[in-house]
């Protein structure tokens, strides 16, 4: 049977049709669509907010349990198989696929969003708390989502050798024959919509920063058309690269991205003049985050004095949930030959470690300038409300600012490349009824997914969606996906238990 005949046209074309319809609505009715998004987001985020928080904390605790239990000894592949990629190449691909260019957008500026929130004043000073929430929202729980699902998908692909590379297949131990029926189809459609929502949110947040950098460097007029051109050029370049080089290309690109990323961080730390402040504030923030971890993870603000968790923590857990469709599949597929314990602990070391370093260095650089009175980024943000302009002004306080802007632009493009490659690859795999472990999707199908993935971001850019509306897209898409994530986790534990029993029985028969 040819690959073309194995294509699942419902999974491929139905999302394409719905995304095209949504894009038209966002484009022609921006105000009305933003109002509808906000009202749905309010119901899900405000009324059912605890649902997101429970899943987030629960998945993180499950990841710790799996790593420390007998499940941790299971090799993702054959028992004596060695890892396909070195730890550095594996970690680079995992980090760059798991966090797109928005890590740079948020690293520079996230403390500003919290410093202007009344909840920080309730807790204490800006110095003590504005740098704590960024590392809380981007570290243990987010990577917990990724890693639990990565080992579930890796187990499904490399141990059970399943040929349906989909969300529904990882629920087979629980759903049984229903995996191949209506229920499995619904799970896969939800996963595809979540994938599109996550991509749309990321592109819509980070691409305007790239356009702002281009404007600053080359003095071209900054408008929505420029942002869309940036999206189209980058995706075309990335897609061509992906077609030519595949997984090997992603590995090379990911390593280059890591060198650029840490080069940028090293420059800011060593030459920004805030090294002591960055290290000391970062160390204190890390300690405060760990000391208050469970309090931060369970805070719901029942009286809505500031609605901080509804505005931020719940959005972030939803954001990570929708990214959980592509990133964990990719991490699981490149983790062949590693044990489940190595995958989880290595993921926490490389993924969380790199994320923390980014937020501590880039965030505390600008916070240091603010607290010492050398700059007033909070006043600029309150005056303009434009976070992209604030980030450009932060970078302009660095020595050799044009060089840093250029380095930032290249790094963001490299981040986009690896993230977009992995998303398009996983999305294309979804288009097939069955796809063997060593089979790859047809180039035409990958092209279709590349087109599909850029529709919604462009529509959101043209609808001039605010940060609030971009958050709404993720919160809405994540609501049903949260239940599927729980189902996958339970199914994995059941299937892994059965595998260990089979292994034990086989060893007894040999002896």
UniProtKB/TrEMBL annotation:
Top-level taxon of origin: Bacteria
Signal peptide: none
Keywords linked to the UniProt accession: Cell membrane, Membrane, Transmembrane, Transmembrane helix, Transport
Subcellular location: Cell membrane
The UniProt record lists the keyword Membrane: yes
Membrane-protein topology: Multi-pass membrane protein
InterPro entries for this protein: BCCT_transptr
Keyword Iron-sulfur found: no
Coiled coil: none
Listed transmembrane segments: 7-29, 49-67, 87-108, 135-157, 182-206, 226-244, 256-279, 314-332, 344-367, 444-462, 474-493
Family: Belongs to the BCCT transporter (TC 2.A.15) family.
Name of protein: BCCT family betaine/carnitine transporter
């Amino acid at each position: 049977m040819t690959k073309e005949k194995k294509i699942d046209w419902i999974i491929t074309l139905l999302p394409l049709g719905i995304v095209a319809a949504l894009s038209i609505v966002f484009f022609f009715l921006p105000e009305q669509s933003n109002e509808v998004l906000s009202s749905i987001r309010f119901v899900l985020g405000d009324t059912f907010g605890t649902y997101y928080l429970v899943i987030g904390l629960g998945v993180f605790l499950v990841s710790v349990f799996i790593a420390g239990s007998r499940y941790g000894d299971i090799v993702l592949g054959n028992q004596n198989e060695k890892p396909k990629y070195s730890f550095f190449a594996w970690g680079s691909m995992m980090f760059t696929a798991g966090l797109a260019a928005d890590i740079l957008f948020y690293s520079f500026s996230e403390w500003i969003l919290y410093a202007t929130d009344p909840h920080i004043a309730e807790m204490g000073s800006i110095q003590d708390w504005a740098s704590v929430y960024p590392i809380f929202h981007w570290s243990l729980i987010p990577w917990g989502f990724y890693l639990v699902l990565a080992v579930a998908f890796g187990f499904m692909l490399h141990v059970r050798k399943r040929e349906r590379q989909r969300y529904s297949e990882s629920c087979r131990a629980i759903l049984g024959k229903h995996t191949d029926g209506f229920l499995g189809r619904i799970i896969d459609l939800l996963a595809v919509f979540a994938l599109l929502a996550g991509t749309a949110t990321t592109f819509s947040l980070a691409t305007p920063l790239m356009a702002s950098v281009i404007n600053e460097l080359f003095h071209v007029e900054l408008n929505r058309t420029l942002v869309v051109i940036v999206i189209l050029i980058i995706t075309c370049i990335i897609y061509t690269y992906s077609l030519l080089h595949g997984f090997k290309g992603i590995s090379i690109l990911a390593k280059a991205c890591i060198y650029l990323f840490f080069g940028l961080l090293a420059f800011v730390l060593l030459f920004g003049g805030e090294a002591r402040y960055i290290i000391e504030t970062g160390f204190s923030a890390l300690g405060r985050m760990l000391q208050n971890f469970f309090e931060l993870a369970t805070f719901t603000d029942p009286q809505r004095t500031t609605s901080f968790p509804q505005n931020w923590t719940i959005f972030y857990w939803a954001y990570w949930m929708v990214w959980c469709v592509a990133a964990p599949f990719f991490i699981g597929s490149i983790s062949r030959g590693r044990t489940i314990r190595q995958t989880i602990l290595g993921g926490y070391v490389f993924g969380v470690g790199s994320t923390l370093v980014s937020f501590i260095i880039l965030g505390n650089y600008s916070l240091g300038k603010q607290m010492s009175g050398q700059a007033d980024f909070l006043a600029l943000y309150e005056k303009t409300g434009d976070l992209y302009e604030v980030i450009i002004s932060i970078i302009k306080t660095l020595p050799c600012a044009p060089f840093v802007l250029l380095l930032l632009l290249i790094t963001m493009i490299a981040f986009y490349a690896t993230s977009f490659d992995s998303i398009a690859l996983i999305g294309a795999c979804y288009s097939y009824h069955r796809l063997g472990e060593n089979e790859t999707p047809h180039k035409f199908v990958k092209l279709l997914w590349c087109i599909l993935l850029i529709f919604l971001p462009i529509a959101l850019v043209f609808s001039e969606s605010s940060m609030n509306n971009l958050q709404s897209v993720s919160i809405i898409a994540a609501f049903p996906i949260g239940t599927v994530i729980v189902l996958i986790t339970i199914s994995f534990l059941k299937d892994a238990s059965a595998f260990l029993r089979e292994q034990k029985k086989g060893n007894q028969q040999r002896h």
